[in-house]
Design brief:
single chain; alpha+beta; conserved putative lor/sdh protein from methanococcus maripaludis s2 fold; Elongation Factor Tu (Ef-tu), domain 3; OB fold (Dihydrolipoamide Acetyltransferase, E2P); 4 helices; about 25% helix
Length: about 375
């Protein structure tokens, strides 16, 4: 049988199969070279950073020492200032408002004259009532002498006496109405805006008061706390009275403080809170009714508590921790914080008193880095 394939054409052609292998080898070589370049670059960068750190020296940090101090047990809330006593001044008689004897917004004393209503009609009414009473009294005296002699019936005498008593009552009412034409301040306090000026007709049926007076000193702050805080408040209140401190929103300036004087007898079912009130001296007057403030209800003061500045406490994946300075290096130490008060953190974990911790943690700080205190760590004591 004859072979149709020439010898030259029957030899296998490997030129096409070797091309892919050659390209793959080139790609692998490029990858290896790139990885080696990246590795060399990283090593050089780390060495450069290491040289920079060595030239810069240890990281300078702010520090504080763990100390013991008296720390308040407190609850915080948003409160509203309210007047302890508010009076709406409404006239008791009708008439022309003759005079206003104060300026709106003025501080007035108790019994100070505020308004005068035209009293002429009431003086006339008083004179008429007095004349009627005098006449009826004279009739009673006359009949008292006639009754024993039978000149008048006893019933007529009793009628005369009753008429005299009515005249006397009318006289007293006329005196009261005349006194109502002079309107005095029922309490001392700060007056609000005037609703009526002199020359207008006023009456006892007015729905809008002539002026409103708010007692400014003492004054109240009212605030709400979750119902879950009631047990602690009652517990500490049995030992010492709770004190509320009022602070201006946005800063820690204390505007006033005073005892807790009121706990509402019902839980607000919509919010789950209970209303509280504290009385503040407000001298000098700095708090205004309707003003919103921050409230710190101090239940007790615990002495000898280990504390550190709250800014030293950091939060990580495993919980809270601080950087302790140990042999010139920053070491991460887990801590338990019982509570925070007044910029201080009360420690619940055993961190020895005198231990130096970093209070201002730089972003570049890492565990084990060399550090040096900015100044000698000194114990700081929170205000009690």
């Amino acid at each position: 049988m004859q072979n149709r394939c020439p010898s030259s054409s029957c030899v296998p052609d490997h030129s096409h199969s070797s091309r892919p292998s050659h390209k793959a080898w080139i790609v692998v070589s490029l990858i290896v070279v790139a990885l080696a370049a990246v590795t060399v670059w990283r090593i050089q960068a780390n060495q450069a950073n290491s040289h920079v750190r060595k030239r810069q020296g240890p990281l300078v940090v702010a520090t504080a020492a763990v100390t013991t101090a008296s720390v308040p047990v407190e609850l915080k809330a948003t409160g509203e200032i309210a007047s302890r006593h508010t009076v709406s001044v409404i006239p008791q008689v009708s008439g022309i408002l003759a005079a206003v004897d104060f300026h709106e917004g003025q501080m007035v004393r108790k019994n100070q004259i505020l308004f005068r209503i035209d009293a002429a009609p009431y003086r006339v009414a008083l004179a008429s009532a007095r004349a009627a009473w005098v006449l009826d009294e004279s009739i009673v005296k006359r009949d008292a002498q006639l009754v024993p002699h039978g000149y008048i019936a006893p019933e007529a005498y009793e009628t005369a006496v009753a008429t005299a008593e009515q005249a006397k009552a009318a006289l007293h009412q006329a005196e009261i109405n005349l006194s109502y034409t002079t309107i005095r301040a029922p309490i001392g306090g700060l007056t609000g805006s005037l609703s009526v000026r002199s020359g207008n007709l006023v009456s006892s049926s007015m729905t809008t008061p002539l002026v409103t007076i708010n007692q400014m000193s003492p004054i109240l702050v009212q605030f709400a706390l979750p119902q879950g805080d009631l047990e602690a408040i009652l517990h500490y209140r049995m030992r010492d009275p709770a004190t509320a401190e009022v602070l201006r929103p946005g800063n820690d300036r204390v505007l006033g403080s005073g005892p807790l004087v009121f706990i509402d007898n019902t839980v607000n079912t919509l919010t789950g809170t209970i209303l509280y009130k504290a009385r503040l001296p407000n001298r000098p007057i700095r708090l205004w009714p309707g003003q919103y403030v921050r409230v710190q209800l101090i239940l007790a003061v615990q002495k000898g508590m280990p504390v550190i500045p709250d800014q030293a406490v950091q939060v990580g994946q495993n919980g809270r921790f601080v950087y302790e300075i140990e042999r010139g290096r920053a070491v991460i130490v887990p801590v338990v914080i019982r509570r925070e008060a007044g910029g201080w953190a009360v420690l619940g974990s055993k961190l020895p008193v005198g231990t130096t911790v970093i209070t201002e943690v730089p972003e570049t700080l890492r565990n084990g880095m060399s550090v040096v205190p900015r100044q000698r760590a000194t114990p700081a004591t929170p205000a009690s």
